[in-house]
Amino acid sequence: MEVVFDREWIEEQFDTLPLWQRSAYTDFAATIADEANTFPCIPARMGFLSNHLRYSFVGDPREEQSIKMLAQCLKDYTKASRTFGKYTTLTVFFHTPHDMQDSFEVADYQQLFWSILNNLTNLDEMNWPEGIPMEPTHHEWEFCFHGEPYFISCATPAHKLRKSRHFSTLLMAIQPRWIFDDINDTTAFGRKIKKLIRQRIADYDTVPGHPDLKWYGQEDSYEWKQYFLSDDNHSPSKCPFLRMSQENGSLRNVFLPFHNNPGRHTD
User: Fold this and answer.
1) Which PANTHER family has this protein been placed in (predicted)?
2) Nearest CA to 181 among 214, 128, 217, 131?
3) Helices then strands (H, E): number in the chain?
4) How far apart are CA 45 and CA 252, in angstroms?
5) Are 41 and 202 in contact (CB under 8 A)?
6) How, if at all, do strands 244-247 and 250-253 pair?
7) pLDDT tens figures, 133-179
8) pLDDT tens by residue, 108-131
9) So what's the pLDDT on residue 243?
10) Is the Cβ–Cβ distance between 166 and 160 less than 8 Å?
11) CA–CA separation, 77 vs 75, rounded Å?
């Protein structure tokens, strides 16, 4: 069964999709390809218009079956991502019921986000790739799945001030590290894009750019801090990622139990 789709497939099958999926895709298209061209992430806009982006629809993020579906989506995407184009990203829309949207605050979504990653990595069938540190406090750490390092950007319905991290459903944009080969501080193109994106973020959001937004590999840059940004300038003191722990010289998976309601809604 197909779980990763391109823009053409979604638009051809649009009328057959469940209402929440149609709404999520419509909101995404209107946001990233707005007529005024204000969306901050220029490569994401280019990826959408050129059909390099891929999309997956996943159920309620609080349910174990949804994380299993996410694992399958990311596994399938990883296998073929290098054929999709240089601006590719896996955009994951989660079904976000009204009870979540009505009661969850940014902090609740943040805890849910890390619960998803902790349970997702527990389903990884491949070893952590060599060359990527497993300790998030290392400046070259990146989340990895199926042997591929990924940068993840999360948007939620609860974000209000940081509009660039607001979306009508819980959304994850999962970007393979290789798409940044030409977009980094060592290239003129990368430096130009960074300057443009920072300026567009300043115009787009109603709060200043988050201080955790930095280049991958800088000694004072930590990728995990950039995955989920607060609606202000708050930054977590410790990374919640728990994929591996050291025990008697060997590595073991750490499973984080699911809860129906994370954050302040847990028992």
Assistant:
1) YCGG FAMILY PROTEIN, YQCI_YCGG FAMILY PROTEIN
2) 217
3) 8, 7
4) 39
5) no
6) antiparallel
7) 999 989 899 999 999 999 999 999 999 999 999 999 999 999 999 99
8) 999 999 999 999 999 999 999 999
9) 74
10) yes
11) 5
Count of alpha carbons within 13 angstroms of residue 153, beta-carbon side: 16
Query: Are 223 and 233 in contact, with CB atoms under 8 Å apart?
Result: no
Q: Please tell me the distance from the alpha carbon of residue 124 to that of residue 67, in angstroms, as a whole number.
A: 11
Rounded mean pLDDT, 74-92: 98
Scanning the structure block, which residue is given the tokens 């399958």?
72
CA 23 to chain centre: 19
What percentage of residues in the chain have a pLDDT greater than 70?
88
Question: Tell me: the pLDDT tens digits for 220-258?
Answer: 678 899 999 999 989 988 999 987 543 333 333 444 455
Q: Which two tokens stand for residue 181?
A: 């080969």
Site of tokens 């944009």:
173
> Rounded to an integer, what distance in angstroms lies between the CA atom of residue 4 and that of residue 57?
8
Task: Tell me the whole-structure pTM to 2 decimals.
Answer: 0.90
Cα separation, 89 vs 46, in Å, equals 11
- The answer to whether 227 and 152 have CB atoms below 8 angstroms apart is yes
Bridge pairing between strands 54-58 and 148-155: unpaired
What pLDDT, on a 0 to 100 scale, did the predictor assign at position 267? 30
Helix ranges, the chain (H): 7-12, 19-32, 42-49, 64-80, 98-103, 106-121, 188-204, 223-227
- Residue 200: name the closest of 29, 26, 90, 43 by CA: 43
Q: How far from each other are the two terminal CA atoms of the chain, in whole angstroms?
A: 37
What are 77's two structure tokens?
């995407």
Which region among 78-92, 99-113, 203-217 has the lowest average model confidence (pLDDT)?
Answer: 203-217
What are the beta bridge partners of residue 156?
166
